[in-house]
Structure formats: structure tokens, C-alpha cells
Amino acid sequence: MKLLYSTSATAKGGRNGHVKSENGVLDLEVRMPKGLGGANEDYANPEMLFAAGYSACFDSALNLVIKQSKIKTGETTVTAKVSLGQLENGGFGLAVDLHANVPEVSLEEAHSLVEKAHQVCPYSNATRGNIEVNLSVSNNESHN
């Protein structure tokens, strides 16, 4: 792999601690979410951070594919729902539902663009064969 970019973040205290990027832009307290025994939903958690990264990365890949295809669309949005579960071996795993909204094209075209983006996106390439990633699409102007 030809290296194009590298960054780092450091965690202290795990799920009940702090994360900070090397440049200090990301500087967050993280806490166990209520669904995993935490007190509330007032803090970031690793799944939330993964969802944010995956959705931003996938939306960039989608827009690259759209640009390369020379197709006119409205502004795209991508929502990543990340779930944490227990594996049969007692360990833990993730699953992702990615929903992309690609306005001003047919659903068939939106689906094709999303499939192409799924082949380009670094997160998709990193997770392929490791975690379940389900793709869905819409093509309406008002989808959030």
C-alpha cells in the first residue's frame, strides 16, 4: 500500500476515559453508553466515533464515484449505524448498517453508485469479510 496519510489518537481509561488526537482537534471524554451499563448517553463512545468516521469516509467515496461517473445528483448524506454484539466465541463484534441518500437520481442509479463507493471506501475495504455491513439507499430530497 502506498501511504497517503497517517494520524493517531491516544486513549486513556478505555470506555470510561479520554481520547485525544495527535493534533488535539479530537479531545473527548468517552463513557460507557447506557445500553452497556453506563449512566447516560451524554458522552461519546467508541461505536459513535466509528460511525462518524465510517459515514464521513463513505460519503467522500460516494462523491468521488459520482464525480468520476459524471452524474448530476443533489447533496448526498450517509448515516452509519454501528452495533456492538457478543460473538459465539464470547468475544465482541461490530455490525454496520450504512444508509446513503443520493437525491436526483433513480433508486437503481443510487444503488449502483453506493455499490461502487463500497468498493472504494477505505472503511469498507478494512471491514470487508470481518464485520457485517448492510447497505441501503434512498433518493429523496428530504432524507436526513
Automatic annotation (TrEMBL):
Where is the secretion signal located? none
Composition skew (Polar residues), residue ranges: 1-10
- The record's region (Disordered) falls at 1-20
Q: Which Pfam families match?
A: OsmC
UniProt-listed InterPro entries: KH_dom-like_a/b, OHR, OsmC/Ohr_fam, OsmC/Ohrsf
Q: Which domain of life is it from?
A: Bacteria
Q: Which PANTHER family match?
A: ORGANIC HYDROPEROXIDE RESISTANCE PROTEIN-LIKE (PTHR33797:SF2)
Q: Give the family this protein belongs to, as stated in its UniProt record.
A: Belongs to the OsmC/Ohr family.
Q: What is this protein called?
A: Organic hydroperoxide resistance protein
